[in-house]
Amino acid sequence: MDHLGPCLTRPIGTSVVSGGIFTALDTLIGGTPLSLRNWGFYSGSIYAYNIIQCPMEVIHGRQSSLHNVASAGLLGYIGVSRGMISVPFVNPYFVYGARYPGLIGAVVYGGIGGALATLGGKPI
């Protein structure tokens, strides 16, 4: 349980900065207006991605890229199911024509999370 406190507070700074970077990129590339709402969405999503892994790390006693897969997959499922995010690398007609588009979002975002964690040096 000693790991849980720092696990919940450590990603705050990273989430704030990363949220700002993603908001700036979204404004420059996507043409989305610069707003605190967008910054809050990106920062909150990155923070949620990190803290969802905390209980898994406490239970297993170590970090694992599979935790990243589960965390990103869960957020991808929720985001796509609620229409908050789209699925990268997949044709939108395929995604939204599917019976369960959230599952496609879970697979794609979970794969991205796992790939980035593995490339970052996390063990499986």
Which helices and strands occur, and which strands form pairs?
Blueprint (H helix, E strand, L loop, with lengths): L3 H6 L1 H20 L5 H25 L4 H17 L10 H6 L3 H19 L5
Overall helicity: over 70%
The secondary-structure element order is: HHHHHH
Largest sheet: none
**Termini Cα gap:** 22 Å
Spans of 5+ residues with little confidence (pLDDT < 50)? none
User: What is the total tally of β strands?
Assistant: 0
Mean pLDDT: 92
Alpha-beta classification: mainly alpha
**Whole-number radius of gyration?**
15 Å
Helix count, DSSP H or I runs of 4 or more residues: 6
Quick one: overall form? globular
Strand content: under 5%
Work out the oligomeric state of the chains in this entry.
single chain
Question: Could you describe the 3D structure shown?
Answer:
It is built from 6 helices and no strands. The radius of gyration is 15 Å and the shape is globular. By secondary structure, it is mainly alpha-helical.
Supply the key terms:
single chain, 124 residues, mainly alpha, 6 helices, 75% helix, globular
Would you summarize the structure shown here?
By secondary structure, the protein is an all-alpha fold. It is built from six helices and no strands.
